[in-house]
Amino acid sequence: MHTQSLLAILAVTGGLLGACTSDPTGTGTSGAGDRLTLSVAPSSVTINSGRSLRLTAIVHHGDGSTSAPGGVAWESSDATIATVAAGGLVQGVQAGRTQIRALWRGSRASSLVTVMPAPAAKPQPATCLPRISVTAGGTVGKRPGCE
Predict the structure, then answer these.
(1) What angle do CA 138, 144, 147 make, to 5 degrees?
(2) Residues 6+ apart with CB under 8 A from 71
(3) How far is it, in rounded angstroms, from Cα 91 to Cα 117?
(4) Are 91 and 85 in contact, with CB atoms under 8 Å apart?
(5) Does residue 117 have a cis bond before it (omega within 30 degrees)?
(6) Virtual CA dihedral for 102, 56, 14, 6, nearest 10 degrees?
(7) Helix or strand holding residue 13 (H, E)
(8) Out of 5, 65, 71, 95, which residue is the most buried by the measure of CB atoms under 10 Å away?
(9) What gap in Å lies between CA 117 and CA 94, rounded to an integer?
(10) Helix/strand/coil percentages in the chain, nearest 5
């Protein structure tokens, strides 16, 4: 009886562990023979330094359906240009280009992130208040300010 239970457990866990395998090219197969491909959306993006955006990892199945994989690890090829946190949150650091990669079950996919310098602050117009004058007779006069 114990041998049959052990064999049943091994059969089930083996099936679960073999449910999805992949190779370093970003493709793999599911246990059902479904070909899987990993991608990152958007595949390229431009952001300003100091700004952030979220990239999304997507698994493409052989039948044309897609799913969001769990347990994706993210990395930046140059963290001096842009960093990436859990969930694909990218932060622009300084001007340049870097690859942000998603790693999932041995597959990898990437997005080209271009970081532009933060826009310069727009100069604010000077605040000019009208000049008000009051004469000895009580007449109020208004003259334009900022002369």
Answers:
(1) 125
(2) 104, 105
(3) 13
(4) yes
(5) no
(6) 110
(7) helix 2-17
(8) 95
(9) 6
(10) 15, 45, 40
Residue for token pair 């970003």: 26
Q: Checking DSSP bridges between strand 52-54 and strand 82-85, what pairing results, if any?
A: unpaired
Prediction pTM value:
0.62
Q: How far is CA 134 from the centre of its chain?
A: 62
Write out pLDDT tens, residues 122-136: 777 766 666 666 777
Q: How far is the C-alpha of 138 from the C-alpha of 136, rounded, in Å?
A: 5
CA distances from 79 to 38, 53, 97, 141 (A): 23, 15, 10, 62
Paired tokens of 66 = 């897609």
- Please list the ranges in the chain whose pLDDT falls under 50: 1-31
CA 70 to chain centre: 15
| Residue in the block written with tokens 């001096």 | 80
Domains for the chain: give ranges and CATH numbers.
24-119 (2.60.40.1080)
